[in-house]
Amino acid sequence: MPQEAIRTTRRVAGLSIAIAILVLGIKYVAYALTGSAALYSDALESVVNVVAAAVAFWALEVSHRPADKDHPFGHHKAEYFSAVVEGVLIVVAALLILREAWGAFQAPRSLEAPLAGIAVNSVATLINLVWALYLIRLGRERRSPAFDADGRHLMADVVTSVGVVAGLGVATAVGWLWLDPLLAALVALNILREGWKVVVSSLSGLMDQAMDPADEEKAKAIISSHAEGAIEVHDLKTRLAGRATFIEFHMVVPELMSVGDAHDICDRIEAALETEFEDATVQIHVEPEKEIKQTGVPVV
């Protein structure tokens, strides 16, 4: 990845921490104004956001380290650990929220200055919405599990915050005190669901998940159109490691083709794949004609 892109990634990760702290402060003010269990749950989730942003910053720093003796394939998978940690923190926060909700349900309490609390919380929600959309887009562009997980978590936070604000509005209007702890419990269940999705997605990456089927078909088309002189390509395997893509396959060439000519074909294919897939590593095993399988990628 170019140095400018790395610097941008670091700035965004650092800004995520600052925004998470700001939003946490705003949401705590909303809770302090009202004493609402639902707003408490919203603020507690923001504590997770702060910790998750800090962990993501660390993971991104590690993932950009160059390959070394102990890690010859690089450090790309560090981002998956960040996403797993975030998922676990979400689960912990959900359990703490459920405990608070149960206490509030057993001893319902009236809300103080609910309209002021709702207004303050709405400001935090708007900040989270803008930043979540940006992180999700950046995560897709950079193929960053850390940014994508952080953005999706914030978007879940936005959805739950909107639900909390709407519910508190209803509770204030009709005087249903039991609605406040119920909303807190619903927030907890929703973020449990999001935490599970983040963990499952990250574990798939740690288990060397293959490329998206559409991208794999694109890779096959590129190989086919740039392998002129070869007979066939088979045993194509792909895996993702954060933003890095690993592509390997066997290429069958005529028995009498020179090493130099076979190497030229490999260079063409590698260059084309690396142009299409940023941070791609391509490995090609050249085989003689007797190894043909006629079940692989046809050469056009």
TrEMBL record:
<dbReference type="InterPro" id="IPR002524">
    <property type="entry name" value="Cation_efflux"/>
</dbReference>
<dbReference type="InterPro" id="IPR058533">
    <property type="entry name" value="Cation_efflux_TM"/>
</dbReference>
<dbReference type="GO" id="GO:0015341">
    <property type="term" value="F:zinc efflux antiporter activity"/>
</dbReference>
<dbReference type="GO" id="GO:0015086">
    <property type="term" value="F:cadmium ion transmembrane transporter activity"/>
</dbReference>
<dbReference type="InterPro" id="IPR036837">
    <property type="entry name" value="Cation_efflux_CTD_sf"/>
</dbReference>
<feature type="transmembrane region" description="Helical">
    <location>
        <begin position="80"/>
        <end position="98"/>
    </location>
</feature>
<feature type="transmembrane region" description="Helical">
    <location>
        <begin position="37"/>
        <end position="60"/>
    </location>
</feature>
<feature type="transmembrane region" description="Helical">
    <location>
        <begin position="158"/>
        <end position="179"/>
    </location>
</feature>
<comment type="similarity">
    <text>Belongs to the cation diffusion facilitator (CDF) transporter (TC 2.A.4) family.</text>
</comment>
<keyword id="KW-0472">Membrane</keyword>
<feature type="transmembrane region" description="Helical">
    <location>
        <begin position="12"/>
        <end position="31"/>
    </location>
</feature>
<feature type="transmembrane region" description="Helical">
    <location>
        <begin position="118"/>
        <end position="137"/>
    </location>
</feature>
<feature type="domain" description="Cation efflux protein cytoplasmic">
    <location>
        <begin position="212"/>
        <end position="289"/>
    </location>
</feature>
<dbReference type="GO" id="GO:0005886">
    <property type="term" value="C:plasma membrane"/>
</dbReference>
<dbReference type="InterPro" id="IPR027469">
    <property type="entry name" value="Cation_efflux_TMD_sf"/>
</dbReference>
<feature type="domain" description="Cation efflux protein transmembrane">
    <location>
        <begin position="15"/>
        <end position="207"/>
    </location>
</feature>
<dbReference type="GO" id="GO:0015093">
    <property type="term" value="F:ferrous iron transmembrane transporter activity"/>
</dbReference>
<keyword id="KW-1133">Transmembrane helix</keyword>
<dbReference type="Pfam" id="PF01545">
    <property type="entry name" value="Cation_efflux"/>
</dbReference>
<keyword id="KW-1003">Cell membrane</keyword>
<dbReference type="InterPro" id="IPR027470">
    <property type="entry name" value="Cation_efflux_CTD"/>
</dbReference>
<keyword id="KW-0813">Transport</keyword>
<dbReference type="InterPro" id="IPR050291">
    <property type="entry name" value="CDF_Transporter"/>
</dbReference>
<keyword id="KW-0812">Transmembrane</keyword>
<protein>
    <recommendedName>
        <fullName>Protein p34</fullName>
    </recommendedName>
</protein>
<dbReference type="GO" id="GO:0006882">
    <property type="term" value="P:intracellular zinc ion homeostasis"/>
</dbReference>
<dbReference type="Pfam" id="PF16916">
    <property type="entry name" value="ZT_dimer"/>
</dbReference>
